[in-house]
Amino acid sequence: MDLLYKRVLLKLSGEALMGDDNFGINRDVLEGIVAEIKQVVDAGIELAIVVGGGNIFRGVSSSATGMDRANADYMGMLATVMNAMALQDALESAGVAARVQSALQVQPAVESYVRGRAMAHLQKGRVVIFAAGTGNPFFTTDTAASLRGLEIGADVVIKATKVDGVYDKDPVKHADAVRYDTLSYDEVLEKRLGVMDAAAIAICRDNKMPIRVFSITKKGSLMSAMQDEKEGTLVLPGDSR
User: Fold this and answer.
1) pLDDT recorded at residue 58
2) β strands within the chain, DSSP E
3) Is the previous residue joined to 171 through a cis bond, with omega within 30 degrees of 0?
4) Which domains does the chain have, with CATH numbers?
5) Is 223 exposed, middle or buried (0-12, 13-18, 19+ CB in 10 A)?
6) Which has fewest Cβ within 10 Å: 51, 87, 100, 190?
7) What pLDDT was estimated at residue 64?
8) Beta bridge partners of 133
9) 53 in Cβ contact with 141 (< 8 Å)
10) % helix / strand / coil in the chain, to the nearest 5?
């Protein structure tokens, strides 16, 4: 089996875990994502995951209206810890060894983030789930994905979404939306395509970390992204197309 990558950082949004529900974690969706992850791990790929918290925080977002931004961000970080623990439990139930490392200290529930320990887990074939973003308010989990990807020496940052790549406009609302096969970092920023936030894109650009955007809802898509250069949209240095 020919694989494009050896070590991968997967950015998984909290919204991806709730499926069509209004908030929370949809068990069927979670099990489907775990099946995708297991296939990749069984193929020998070292996988780390940064998970968001929008599915949980959405349920209390009205309470956060007018709240101090730092406090609201810390609430969001704690939501990612809950998602990470749920994902770990589902992976372990499926026979996939997994560890959660949090940028906030939440012991004894999960490990605190230690780069060397994370690397050791990956080398032993364990999935490492990074929770609580960067541990700092005002930074998104997209930025955390870029940082952690660089810290662990990942070959690529893979962003899972509900659509099969990056389009020039919302494909759900516009039937004539055009999907990009490749983009440069600068094009993403200039066209404000919303692949990831600007800070995350800039970090990847400055360190030449490729980004691949694909649909997590399509069965087999994660494994396909490990093998097929045409799966999703690839963001790289230089001009696209």
Assistant:
1) 65
2) 7-12, 46-51, 98-102, 111-112, 127-131, 156-161, 166-167, 179-180, 182-184, 211-215, 233-236
3) no
4) 7-236 (3.40.1160.10)
5) buried
6) 190
7) 64
8) none
9) yes
10) 40, 20, 40
Across 103-167, the runs of DSSP E, i.e. the strands, are 111-112, 127-131, 156-161, 166-167
Q: What span, in angstroms and rounded, lies between the C-alpha atoms of 17 and 54?
A: 9
Are residues 240 and 180 in contact, defined by beta-carbon separation less than 8 angstroms?
yes
Rounded-to-integer distance, Cα 6 and Cα 170, Å:
32
What is the amino acid identity at position 70?
A: A
Beta-sheet pairing, 46-51 with 98-102: unpaired
Sign of CA dihedral 199, 205, 208, 213: positive
User: Which residue, among 161, 143, 148, has the nearest Cα to 231 in the 3D structure?
Assistant: 161
Reported pTM = 0.93
57 vs 80: CA distance, rounded Å:
9
Tokens encoding 231: 């799966």
d(CA 155, CA 144) in angstroms, rounded, equals 16
C-alpha distances (whole Å) from 181 to each of 116, 172, 174, 233, 236 are 35, 18, 18, 5, 11
Of 216, 209, 100, the C-alpha closest to 147 is 209
Torsion of CA 60, 65, 70, 73, to 10 degrees: 30
State residue 59's pLDDT score: 57
